[in-house]
Amino acid sequence: MTPQHTTPVLKDLNIDNITANTIAINSQGSDARMQYLMERLVTHMHDFARETRLSTKEWMAALNFLVQVGQISSDVRHEFILLSDILGLSLLVDAIDHPKPPGATEGSLLGPFHTHEAESITDGESMSSDPKGEPCIVIGSVKDAQGNPISGVKVDIWETDSTGHYDVQYNERDGPDGRCYMHSDDNGTFWFKAIVPVPYPIPHDGPVGQLLKLLNRHPWRPSHMHFMLEKEGWDHLITAVYLRGDPYETSDAVFGVKESLIVEFTPADQSTAKQYNVAVGTKVLRQDFILVSKEEADALKDKNALEAMASLGRRMKLVDHLPVPDLD
């Protein structure tokens, strides 16, 4: 038996009625959130086409560009993440989905080069085998907003080598390097050896690089080290730390830098050198990560969502902390 649907009459469509009819036919499913996402996506896309008087030639160029983004992507190079990054969308989505109260460590970008093949290391081990990098140690702690240590937090860390390349960018690599994961101890602390981060260009030999060139933008990222912290009951934190004074500190190609995430490496004095068994003068980074409970993050996310919807004049309710039209 052929399913019966109540659908609009899809003929004689034009500039003025195509949007409403597209939304109507997309609104037959049972997932309210999906319907809302599609309604807003179609609305904004159609408005964009009308406002810019988008030409067929331009639209085909955009479609071909997206095809090229997909074609160059691989298991170790996610060009769509790169595209999202350079458009500022990655940072925006993270800020919406993981809001931070004052004092909590702010989020930053995951980037296209995170992998799940990092090996576990213990305190004092090195995450880098690059002999040309400038040695450093990172002494970290994980706490809640009240300063209480949080133990058992998985801390995922990754950075480039001294030439500004991630391990996955080498075809001849035989395993992970410049990346690791650890767990905070009973005092909420962890420490490891690494190399001082260096600035590097994002991959610009593909369609995203071509777009940057058309926009007269550079592809460079300031020196940084990535961190991802997770533990049940705590809001997932993806962040990074950025070296103060880097030449690209204020012009990051992917908009990741925040003032609270800018750090300075200091030379190890005799006491620090002895405690951590490194040479005097070795660069040291001390970094506290302040996590937010999942409950607190969800409450803040709900508050922000309802306030944003109210400011747009929309009557909404929340389902799984995400807004959908309130039709009751």
Explained architecture:
- Helix 1 packs antiparallel against helix 2.
- Among the domains are: 1-54, no CATH class; 103-202 and 220-292, Protocatechuate 3,4-Dioxygenase, subunit A (Sandwich).
- Helices cover 29% and strands 20% of the residues.
- It is built from eight helices and 14 strands.
- With 328 residues, the chain is α+β, with helices and mostly antiparallel strands.
- One of its GO terms (biological process) is catechol-containing compound metabolic process.
- It comes from [Torrubiella] hemipterigena.
Unreliable stretches: none
Number of strands: 14
* CATH homologous superfamily classification of the domain at 103-202 and 220-292: Aromatic compound dioxygenase
Largest sheet: 6 strands, mixed
CATH class of the domain at 103-202 and 220-292: Mainly Beta
Strand order of the largest sheet: 1-4-3-8-9-10
Secondary-structure class: alpha+beta
Task: Give the percentage of residues in beta strands.
Answer: 15-25%
CATH topology of the domain at 103-202 and 220-292: Protocatechuate 3,4-Dioxygenase, subunit A
Domain Intradiol ring-cleavage dioxygenases: 138-166
Pfam family, one: Dioxygenase_C
Organism: [Torrubiella] hemipterigena
Cofactor: Fe(3+)
In short:
This protein is an alpha+beta fold. The chain has 8 helices and 14 strands. Among the domains are: 1-54, no CATH class; 103-202 and 220-292, Protocatechuate 3,4-Dioxygenase, subunit A, CATH 2.60.130.
